[in-house]
């Protein structure tokens, strides 16, 4: 994305349009992937790693949120680089590292590996909103226009989790690879259906972006 953004550095409207499409695609891929890992982490751990690894599940679930943020940061940094502001990237990384340094010891001492995971996600989350604020001002984007591209797939993922939660509650003793694959299938099917409905009923536009990317392959 960096070379493409560099060509648009003097054309803010085009740069904004290009970045928002990247953000939309990033959110559409990373949020449901993280949501699936979050909701199915207990089953995955028990089936593939064994009962003795179950204590890592809360940390794994927390770090899925960090994975989402990392995906967004990866799409933001090239924008700052392309417009000749690499110092913004370096300064924000320094602040995030400093905040992590402050948080990691007390949280790890209090909650162990879960605390370390919380320190990572808290430092990343604070800088996530700061990065977004700077980016929104840089590309002259409306705040809602930016955040709706994240909130729409997030809402769809949360709703898609509900059938999985209900099935896990009703069949609490079912633990097998086939059961795991069934839950994965239910989550994907519900999310895909909701995405299609949301795309048809609103100007979400993700289906058009997916078609463009498939044609480009």
Write a structural description.
The chain has 217 residues and is mostly helical. It has one domain. Helix content is 86%, strand content 0%. α2 (12-49) packs parallel to α6 and α6 packs antiparallel against α7 (177-201). The longest helix is centred in the N-terminal third of the chain and has 38 residues, at 12-49. The chain is flat and about 60 Å long.
Provide the descriptors you would attach to this structure in a database record.
217 residues, mainly alpha, 8 helices
Would you kindly provide a brief summary of this structure?
It contains eight helices and no strands. It has 217 residues and is an all-alpha fold. The protein has one domain.
Set out the fold topology.
Elements: H1 2-7, H2 12-49, H3 57-82, H4 86-111, H5 113-138, H6 143-170, H7 177-201, H8 206-216
Helix pairs in contact: 2-3, 2-6, 2-7, 3-5, 4-5, 6-7
Oligomer: single chain
Tally of discrete structural domains: 1
Large-scale geometry = flat
Number of strands: 0
Distance between the termini: 16 Å
Which range best describes the helical content: under 10%, 10-25%, 25-40%, 40-55%, 55-70% or over 70%?
over 70%
Number of helices: 8
Order of helices and strands: HHHHHHHH
Using only C-alpha atoms, the radius of gyration works out to: 19 Å
Q: Which sheet architecture does the biggest sheet show? A: none
The poorly predicted ranges are none
Q: What do the pLDDT scores average to?
A: 91
Strand content: under 5%
